[in-house]
Design a protein that fits this description.
This protein has 198 residues and is an alpha+beta fold. The chain folds into two domains: 52 residues, no CATH class; 132 residues, Beta Barrel (OB fold (Dihydrolipoamide Acetyltransferase, E2P)). The chain contains seven helices and seven strands; from the N terminus they run ααααββββαββαβα. The protein has a five-stranded mixed β-barrel with strand order 1-2-3-6-5. Strands 4-7 form a two-stranded antiparallel ribbon. It is globular, with a radius of gyration of 20 Å.
């Protein structure tokens, strides 16, 4: 195979455009991906799980706490140094999602907000809130932040949910899809949510 005479220059230009760290991270991930594809004894689902773990091993350029504090409303989250990284599996409704953390699946209930229920009289509003939730989440991985409680009485994780571009709990209230609702003892963001809902 003959390389283009500009191959080296193109590589340098690409490195400058996306940064050395991201360039080599991308090369490493691609190499590992093709190694996994070559192993025929692994099922595609196992390959995907291994890849997800690989992606999570490479930290983002900016610390997560800085990312969160720069998002609208993010400064109310009590401890941004402690969080879980999860892969979004499903959007259940306007204020809950299903995620995978490692190899385990969990339902997550958003802290401090409440959206209309599908089984009530506000079915149209419930649908709108669910669609807004999907739109804000995108296909991103999500960062989950605890307040005080680990779970609610139904066993769902209670969390503030953040993507790289949105503090989901806050955005749903600010855009009018959710109401701010106090669920003691998880009240760190109550004032922020109530203020933006007025």
């Amino acid at each position: 195979m003959k390389l283009s005479p500009n191959y080296h220059e193109e590589g340098i230009l690409l490195t400058r455009q996306i940064g050395k760290k991201k360039y080599f991270r991308t090369l490493a991930i691609l190499f590992l991906f093709f190694q996994l594809l070559a192993i025929s004894c692994l099922a595609i689902e196992e390959k995907i799980q291994v890849l997800e773990k690989i992606f999570m091993c490479f930290p983002d350029d900016a610390p997560v706490h800085e990312m969160v504090e720069n998002l609208d409303g993010g400064n109310c989250i009590p401890d941004t140094s402690q969080y879980e990284i999860a892969n979004l599996l499903d959007v259940i409704d306007g204020d809950s999602i299903k995620v995978r953390i490692g190899s385990d699946e969990f339902e997550v209930r958003y802290i401090g907000v409440d959206t209309p229920e599908f089984h009530g009289n506000d079915r149209d509003k419930a649908t709108s809130a669910t669609l807004a939730n999907k739109m804000l989440l995108g296909n991103d991985r999500v960062y989950l932040f605890k307040d005080v409680s680990e779970t609610d009485r139904y066993g769902r994780l209670l969390r503030y949910v953040v993507t790289e571009s949105h503090f989901i709990n806050f955005e749903l209230v600010m855009r009018g899809y959710a109401q701010s609702k106090s669920y003691p003892p998880d009240i760190a963001c109550n004032r922020t949510f109530f203020r933006v809902s007025e």
